[in-house]
């Protein structure tokens, strides 16, 4: 089954790009410089930030449905990122770590979930999307629980 992976739009975060650290703090955000060995996964381009790039640590509502599963959590966005990742049947490298995939129906209710790592992530995507009641998947990093990406049928 074909699937489509999309990153977040940069637009909701653009007003934060270039703000001073003090102004970012007023928005509940924090700027970090990525160093060698740091793992700051950007949720817009769906890639790890490179050493020397800045990321913003922000709180983001990734599940806005008015259900008990409504959810928000901390995520990284690369400062000045612009082009959202959007690919069919191609899983970005950062989504091959230990992932929790959460399947939601059209009303925003979670109907299934499981974890996978490496090449097994694609098989789990296919298994979850093959269920008729599943409208979309949210990928989360299993260890810290952070939202990673949206996955739908292509």
TrEMBL record:
Alphabetized InterPro entries for the sequence: DUF1203
Pfam family, one: DUF1203
The protein's name in its UniProt record: DUF1203 domain-containing protein
